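Per reviewer request, we include the raw input and output of the structure prediction for the construct analysed in the revised manuscript.
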Amino acid sequence: MNIAIVRSLLLSAFALLPVSLCLAAEPVKAGALDTQTQMNAVTEALQAVGPVEEAVKRYRLAHDGFPASNAEAGVPLPAQFASNSVHTITVGPDGVIDVTLTAASGLDGG
C-alpha cells in the first residue's frame, strides 16, 4: 500500500481554497500501536506542511500564479523537511504540495 498526502490550492472567484486529498490503496487492518504510530505520522506531516502551504498561498497572491518548485515558493529543498515520519515535502507544478512519508511512519511504503 502506498499512501501519499497531497495538498493543493484551487482559486475560486473570491478566495483561495485549500484542498487536501489522501489517496490510498486497499486498507490494511492494524493493531492499536500501529494505528497510533500512523496517526502520529500523519499529524507530523500535516504540521510540517503548514508553512509550505502558507508560502504557496503568499506566492499565489504576489505573482498571480502558482510556484512550480520549492525554490520558487521560497521554502527549503524537499529533503530538508526530513524527520522520523516525513521523507520529503515537494512543491510541484501548479503549486501542488506532495508529502512523502518514511517507512518508519508505520504506513506501508511510507
